[in-house]
Amino acid sequence: MAAPKKGRGPSGGQGRPGRSLVLILIAMVALTGGMFLSGHTTPRLGIDLAGGTSITLKAKNQPGKPNAINATNMGTAVGIIERRVNGLGVSEAEVQTQGSDNIIVNIPKGTNSEQAREQVGTTAQLYFRPVLTVAASGPEQPTPSGSATPSGSATPSAGESAKPEDKGEEATGEEATPSPSSTTQGRAVTGALKKAPTPTPTGSGEPKPSGTPEASPSADPATAKLQEEFAKLDCTDPEQRTAAGKDALPTDSIVACGSNVPGSYEKYVLGPAEVSGGDVDDAEGAIDQQTGEWIVSMEFTSAGAKKFQTITSRLSQQQPPMNQFAIVLDGEVVSAPSVRTALSKNAQISGSFDQESAADLGNILSYGALPLTFEESSVTTVTAALGGEQLKAGLIAGAIGLALVVIYLVAYYRGLAFIALLSLLVSGILTYTIMALLGPAIGFALNLPAVCGAIVAIGITADSFIVYFERVRDEIREGRTLRPAIERAWPRARRTILVSDFVSFLAAAVLFLVTVGKVQGFAFTLGLTTLLDVVVVFLFTKPLMTLMGRTKFFSSGGSWSGLDPKRLGAQPPLRRSRRAGVSTDPKEA
Amino acid sequence: MSRLGNLGARLYRGEVGYDFIRNRKIWYGVSILITITAIIGVAVGGLRMGIEFKGGAVFTTDSRAQISTSEATDVATEASGHLAIVQELGNGGLRIQITEVDTAKANEIKETLSEELGIPAEEINADLVGPSWGEQIANKAWTGLGIFMVLVVIYLAIAFEWRMAVAALIALIHDITITVGVYALVGFEVTPGTVIGLLTILGYSLYDTVVVFDSLKEGQKDITKQTRYTYSEIANRSINSTLVRSINTTVVALLPVAGLLFIGGGVLGAGMLNDISLSLFVGLAAGAYSSIFIATPLVADLKEREPQMKALKKRILAKRAAAAARGESPEDDGPVYRQADEDDEDGETAGAVVGQRQQPRGHGRTPGKRR
């Protein structure tokens, strides 16, 4: 708490005003240099100024789960939503929690906001599905059989044979023919997959996507459709990737994408879901005591254990790849481990995990089907044009406000206004550079309320100078000469400034901590500028006053200095002088 | 300006001044009247809550909309099944506001609007708000308000004294009530921007009050060791001596807000800039008024109840009576300003604004001439 007496002794730059000025100059140079070095010369703009879509999600309380909304769950939800949004190929989408139960998703302009909304709004769905077919899909694979068609296309095709997408159907005809026969089983698929859970497709095999497994009766039209989808699916295309497996009922067979190594993708045909995320009691990354490798250990609920036992005992009898089950989160295969023996309550997934990927998978398994559902509290779509217009309006408003303040200060304080203007300038430079640097540092984005906060802060900052100037003038009215007046006025002005700035900062801090959304941006700027105000007044305005007090212009009290003792009606030594002051007061325009 | 500078000097020395304390009851009355009007306004008329609080959608287009506002109203009302409010913006664009629309349904409406207005859907700005969002904002704002008030009262009680804390709190509530009342009476729409503005008033109103209190705190130092001025008189001097600063602060604070209001209202037509600046403008004006006319007189009222201050006042009045009986002016010189109603039976503020230039370092000088 800023007790009123807080602060350094009366020195405050009294003796060495130069030192404080040099200090603040260094700070300004350092901040400006940092700004240019980091390459962020403008503050990051919020959605309402830059254009884009901002979605606010509020976690809903669900009956029976009173403590579901907590920091861990919210963090997991953010992670999952981030994955989904970035799956759209959005760059710089930003997902963050706000307050205790809100998640803000900011998607910059140029993204399909409707699709983004769909992605974000749905609850995460986690299922365990048996793998029916698997194939590599993506550009990273080694060139397969000589049939690969060289192509300038940047998007290699679906299917093994790395054909450009537009030739996908041909490829299907030639070699990746899906056989809709219900009896065919996908045994021909890559041998490398035996080493699942990290299927590293070698690309040597030819995908012969298989039909229905024994478990499900053949439903020809559906299966054929699935095969066709599978053949067409190109997992390297983010849109196709997210679209695959979306909106499928748990009881349907689906096609889905997955990735074990960043940059390479596999596509799967998956059977109906047999275990759901709710059946997993707990899961975490751990180190296998025997091998020393990272594994994911999971524990099922008693109901889940039964189901899991059923699926694993069946799968363990199968040949690869049908001995794999896929862990599918929101239609995306997160992992597809193969099953060696029947398992029940406790299971371990081993493979080439490192600490991070093991922990990730553990999180997904534990929270994949989030204990939280979200509702859209607000969706704001701002076109770039409107954003630019609002930014312009904010800047013009700021310029007008600043100009009015400057005119007023000059008219009232004359020469003193010079000091006030320099201080405002310093304050402005500090605010701007800090805002620019806070963008990359803490994700601060300048939005319209923040601009308002900065404009309002002009008044608060200018007021500190007014408090001090009025004190100095009071001292001069007492009959003091300028230099003692400046020093005597300072301790009292300092106290007033600290007390009032503290109150202002308190308001900003409370607002920032308690509120959400736009209010928070406003509070942040207000708090920042209030802090900077104190810095500027202490390290710049006061020392500058001391220095200026030594100049002839100010100490002689010329009528333009703003410190003219006569005009101020300085008192004594002689009573008469006051009256004289009044009468000799030159009229000026 | 020179006259103002001189006024500053004379205010500072107490040669001129308005007797805020003596006339406090008038101003209390004015404030109570305004406050009651505000409360009645809120109770009867209610606040016009924006989309953000009721849930619904706001679509904003740019100037290309080839359709009149009334046509747009029909289109939007038909598409949504709810009454749409369409405004034309300063830039020629349209602002279409539809209440109680589900965020999910808003997409269809947007498509329809896009067709009818001839503007691609992705170039229509949309603001969709679920019904619980505004409630959440409002709840958090109230929570913030509550926490802030408690903290500020604690802080002021420590930094100053509890009487000042109470007075500041009353002034704060007064400002907020008036601002809310203006919104109810004029029928401005309440949006999150309004809430932001309202919450900013908190800091500002107190900021102003605190500066006056700071001066008062200096003035009341060693008050019991002198017999020239009662507490009320000293309080009055404090207000007057900081009056120039208060005016300057208010002007300097209002100028940028006026800039915002002009641009927000004039150029953009409606929106956040306008909402924030409007509530700020009302609130700042109320805040400047209350810190002078309400907060400090309240402190004086509370202070005068203290036994010490009562005793002091008694001594001073006795002294003055004695002086009057001797046929002298209580002060040996110096004109008595603004004492037209000298016969005021109250008498407690007599001499409140007496000049005392002959003793620059006399007792009871206001802003801490002694250190």
TrEMBL record, chain A:
It is found in: Cell membrane. One of its GO terms (molecular function) is protein-transporting ATPase activity. It is a multi-pass membrane protein. Belongs to the SecD/SecF family. SecD subfamily. The keyword Membrane applies. Residues 178-187 have a biased composition (Polar residues). Residues 143-159 have a biased composition (Low complexity). This is Protein translocase subunit SecD. Residues 136-222, 563-589 are annotated as: Disordered. It comes from the Bacteria. PROSITE patterns: SSD. Forms a complex with SecF. Part of the essential Sec protein translocation apparatus which comprises SecA, SecYEG and auxiliary proteins SecDF. Other proteins may also be involved. Its main location: membrane. One of its GO terms (biological process) is protein transport by the Sec complex. Keywords: Cell membrane, Membrane, Protein transport, Translocation, Transmembrane, Transmembrane helix, Transport. The keyword Transport applies. Part of the Sec protein translocase complex. Interacts with the SecYEG preprotein conducting channel. SecDF uses the proton motive force (PMF) to complete protein translocation after the ATP-dependent function of SecA. GO terms for cellular component: plasma membrane. It comes from Streptomyces microflavus. Residues 416-547 form the SSD domain. Coiled coil: none annotated. The chain crosses the membrane at residues 21-39, 393-411, 418-442, 448-469, 497-516, 522-540.
UniProtKB/TrEMBL annotation, chain B:
GO terms for molecular function: protein-transporting ATPase activity. The chain crosses the membrane at residues 26-47, 141-158, 165-188, 194-216, 247-270, 276-300. Residues 360-371 have a biased composition (Basic residues). It is found in: Cell membrane. The keyword Protein biosynthesis does not apply. Pfam families: SecD_SecF_C. Its main location: membrane. The keyword Glycoprotein does not apply. Residues 112-304 form the Protein export membrane protein SecD/SecF C-terminal domain. InterPro entries: SecD/SecF_arch_bac (IPR022813), SecD/SecF_bac (IPR022645), SecD_SecF_C (IPR048634), SecD_SecF_C_bact (IPR055344), SecF_bac (IPR005665). GO terms for cellular component: plasma membrane. Coiled coil: none annotated. It is a multi-pass membrane protein. Residues 323-371 are annotated as: Disordered. GO terms for biological process: intracellular protein transmembrane transport; protein targeting; protein transport by the Sec complex. Keywords: Cell membrane, Membrane, Protein transport, Translocation, Transmembrane, Transmembrane helix, Transport. Belongs to the SecD/SecF family. SecF subfamily. PANTHER family: PROTEIN TRANSLOCASE SUBUNIT SECF, PROTEIN-EXPORT MEMBRANE PROTEIN SEC. Part of the Sec protein translocase complex. Interacts with the SecYEG preprotein conducting channel. SecDF uses the proton motive force (PMF) to complete protein translocation after the ATP-dependent function of SecA. Forms a complex with SecD. Part of the essential Sec protein translocation apparatus which comprises SecA, SecYEG and auxiliary proteins SecDF. Other proteins may also be involved. This is Protein-export membrane protein SecF. The gene is secF.
